[in-house]
Amino acid sequence: MTELTLGQQLPDRVFGPVTMTDIVRYQGASGDMNPMHHDDDLARSAGFPAAFSVGMLGAGWLAGYCTEHFGEDTVRRFRTRFTSVVYRGDELVASAAVARLFERDGEELVELAIALRKSDGSVVVEGAAEFVV
Fold this sequence. Notes:
alpha+beta
């Protein structure tokens, strides 16, 4: 990767549109078989318009987006917070900006402000991640 600067934006990456297959495959891999994520009738009975994605699926896509730029071995910290529900058909856009460049324990690090947004701009996952550079 080229030299990083404070405030620099990484190129966005689009995920989706989210499918039921994406959701159920993640459920199987994670062991989270909560039916709210694949049973539309149950989700509607709880007040949702349809079954919705597992929050950690979006966080996983965001982590993958970051490691595409810095590599898996460079991750030092990854925190996320879920802010909105994702439904089938949503297209998601991952973004990151350099929030801090610093040194800790002899390693040069970058802290990123990270977000996953729906195509309308609403944030569904936000957080911060640190990587060795």
